[in-house]
Amino acid sequence: MKKLLILFGCCCLVLPAFGATVVATVNGTPITDTDITARTKLMTLDGKVSTDNRRQALQNIIDDSVKLNYAANFGVKPTDEDAAAELKRMNISGLSESEKAMALSAIKAGIAWQVVVARTVLPTVDVTREDVNAMKNDLARTQGLPIEMTIVRLTDIPADVASKLTKPKNCDDAIKMAEDLGGVPQKFVAKQYELSSDIRNRVINLPVLTWSPRVDDSVLLVCSSKKTSEYGKLDDVIKQNAIYKQAMFVADQQLKQLRRKAVVIINDDRYKL
Q1: 104 and 64 Cβ atoms separated by less than 8 Å
Q2: Is the dihedral of CA 222, 226, 231, 232 positive or negative?
Q3: Any bridge partners for residue 25, and if so which?
Q4: How many CB atoms are closer than 10 A to CB 37?
Q5: Buried residues in 163-187 as b, exposed as e (16+ CB within 10 A)
Q6: What is the pTM of this model?
Q7: Model pLDDT for residues 185-213, shown as the tens digit of each residue
């Protein structure tokens, strides 16, 4: 299973500091303005900056409480040691005591939710061969695949010259044909994912030994292509990614349902969700 990232935007819940204003409660547990300030600071460190950060921070704290309560039903209770080890791995310095406590709580909730998803959601998710092929086609269009391609390119070729190009017998024949027409062909070998997007889009579905349409005074021809050793693992990688993505969608829907069942009381109108 692909490890779920434990981000500070996910969750957290700490006990209120003395004298802090209680902004809300979730299942009877208070959430203070100090908690929200600490959460906002951690969100900023995680790269999440917006004018609505404090409202989002409150939502994250509520989600954290919901995750921990639900995970407890399965006997899942991450330890202080687990959370401390993860925080150390993150290598975040300069946290106040309240921010550190907030971070540790966030990490605990993230770990708990990860375990729950692994136990209850991932086993129920599967993808079809059609799903894998669709994702592979999308990957080919947007990023390219581990397929090595030998390509001939002709640049600055007039339209009347391009029209005289015929189907070659092989790559050498294509190069000679271009040279006979006064062109200066360029031959290069590259993996599909190494090609620039404009070149890749032009050759992705181009039949072998077929000149491409003339675009920007240039034509392309794929002499040959072959799958690299990486390609053999591609289906498994794509399938795991598809399962992970689907599991996260299901888990998010489940979290929304659990959130609706939680008893949330917001005392400050500025934080109405």
Answers
A1: no
A2: positive
A3: 30, 265
A4: 17
A5: eebeebeebeebbebbeebebebee
A6: 0.67
A7: 999 999 999 999 999 999 999 999 999 99
